[in-house]
Write a sequence for this structure.
């Protein structure tokens, strides 16, 4: 049986202090990833630091050109937010597709992003919208945040406090989901902002990535037909019993065209 000390700090300062002082601490957000990891004996923390007691970490705020979402904001809150449904509807639609009602009412956006699961939905929106991850000490642009399989730019004692999403003229998210977990076997988020297009892929590789050739093709004209002959290489894609790398490469092209088409409706 695992033995650890449980802490529920009431402020960011207390959380940071605990994270720096304890031997091998783990942050607890929604627990949708951490708790299964603990149950399977894949981690043995000395301390769990529960961020749920810090009120400033949850909530959605509308700015003049962006929306700021607190790290402890639940997926269900993002999915049902009137602010997001009006300003970035593709982001609320993405959140509505995460897991099941139990997961959506427990999981948090900050926890999902910090975990950098290769099949998670949020990383595609973060990258495609050019979001900024705000921590207790700095701001990190999406293009510099995700480093690889379960790897981010976060320091071991750094805590995400919020994510800032710029508005998009048009955006869409489409995924081919695993029927049981509802994780993305492949997910595509496309966003048009001030005439530029960013397209991010999740689920297909070890980490979220952009497809620059597709972005360049869509720069002058948002036409799904322009993507027909653009294919990503399967060489570095995931290959498991859920789907081979060639299949995932095929899905990237198909879903990208469908996502762009949905933006034109």
């Amino acid at each position: 049986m695992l033995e650890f000390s449980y802490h529920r700090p009431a402020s960011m300062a207390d959380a940071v202090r605990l994270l720096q002082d304890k031997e091998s601490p783990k942050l607890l957000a929604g627990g949708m990833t951490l708790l299964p990891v603990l149950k399977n004996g894949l981690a043995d923390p000395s301390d769990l630091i529960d961020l749920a007691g810090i009120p400033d970490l949850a909530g959605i705020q509308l700015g003049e050109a962006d929306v700021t979402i607190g790290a402890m904001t639940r997926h269900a809150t993002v999915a049902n937010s009137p602010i997001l449904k009006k300003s970035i509807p593709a982001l609320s639609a993405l959140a509505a597709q995460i897991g099941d009602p139990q997961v959506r009412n427990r999981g948090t956006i900050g926890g999902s992003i910090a975990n950098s699961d290769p099949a998670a939905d949020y990383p595609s929106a973060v990258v495609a919208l050019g979001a900024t991850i705000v921590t207790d000490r700095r701001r990190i642009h999406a293009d510099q945040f995700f480093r690889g399989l379960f790897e981010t730019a976060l320091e071991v004692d750094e805590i995400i406090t919020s994510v800032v999403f710029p508005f998009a003229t048009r955006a869409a998210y489409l995924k081919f989901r695993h029927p049981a977990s509802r994780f993305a076997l492949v997910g595509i988020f496309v966003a048009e902002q001030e005439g530029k297009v960013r397209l991010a892929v999740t689920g297909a590789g070890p980490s979220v990535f952009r497809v620059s050739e597709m972005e360049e093709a869509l720069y002058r004209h948002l036409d799904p037909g322009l993507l027909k002959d653009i294919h990503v290489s399967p060489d570095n894609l995931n290959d498991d019993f859920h789907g081979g790398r060639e299949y995932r490469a095929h899905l990237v092209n198909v879903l990208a065209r469908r996502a762009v088409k949905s933006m034109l409706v």
Remarks:
- The chain has a mean pLDDT of 96.
- The longest strand covers residues 184-193.
- The longest helix spans residues 245-263.
- The domain at 1-53 is CATH 3.30.43.10 (Uridine Diphospho-n-acetylenolpyruvylglucosamine Reductase; domain 2).
